Amino acid sequence: MKCYLPISTSCEHNKLPKQDALPREFYNRDTKTVAKELLGKILVHETSDGISSGKIVETEAYLGQIDPACHAYAGYTNRSALFFGSPGIAYVFINYGIHYCLNAITLPPGKAGCVLIRAIEPLEGINLMFKRRKRHEILGLTNGPGKLTKALDINKSCNGYDLVSSNLYIKDNNEKFKILKSKRIGITKASNWYLRYFIKNNNFVSGSKSINNESKEL
DNA sequence: GGTGGGATTAGCT
DNA sequence: GCTAATCCCACCA
User: Fold this and answer.
1) pTM here?
2) What is the band of A15 on the pLDDT scale with cuts at 50, 70, 90?
3) CA at A80, C1' at C4: how many angstroms apart?
4) Straight-line distance from CA A191 to C1' C12, in Å?
5) Which nucleotide is the nearest neighbour of A72, by CA and C1'?
6) For every residue of chain A, which 3-state class applies, written as one string?
């Protein structure tokens, strides 16, 4: 199997698949499809402190080289290298110097795309999350990209992790719900594209005050 | 080799 | 509603 990843993370994806983790084929599809289908799935991080997890309730699609807001827009750079590697890899970047954002790489090697996980609903390890976030209210604990990474202890060292075979993974969860879409949040480029997806009437979606007004049914 | 700014958040007023 | 916190990349010289 050809290895498309940088040396530091190379062949991470050749490990045995994690039990319950969504298969690599799940991510090897159109970015918008993956963004929609990640809703309702369970994001899990197993650390030495214990397991913490949550249901994904909000995502955004970033469409690679055709998307001015995507970090791979300019093509292949050190930063964007992961985008051009295997699907199912975690892309973690630091934002505003303070917050980490977690993305899942989509599309086959050579094609760039990713899905930003913007919010989860806490499930397992809630006390761990309280400790990491230094907060003790479940509402507001994980309803934003920087909040959920802190709650699950996802940081720069997780960049390049394989969501199929590492301790950071996403598993299936059969559940029915309605999906809404809206413009993406907080970006200045291509800000009017409807690439944000979230579960209707879920309390753990971010920015629920003003943004849901502009949302549309799928 | 320097620098402008960003896929955010919490804690103010 | 406003703003500070604070890192690292991409871009320009």
Assistant:
1) 0.93
2) confident
3) 29
4) 26
5) C10
6) CCCCCCHHHCCHHHCCCCCCECCHHHHCCCHHHHHHHCCCCEEEEEECCEEEEEEEEEEEEECHHHCCCCCCCCCCCCCCHHHHCCCCEEEEEEECCCEEEEEEECCCCCCCCEEEEEEEEECCCHHHHHHHHCCCCCCCCCCCHHHHHHHCCCCHHHCCCECCCCCEEEECCCCCCCEEEECCCCCCCCCCCCCEEEECCCCCCCCCCCHHHHCEEC
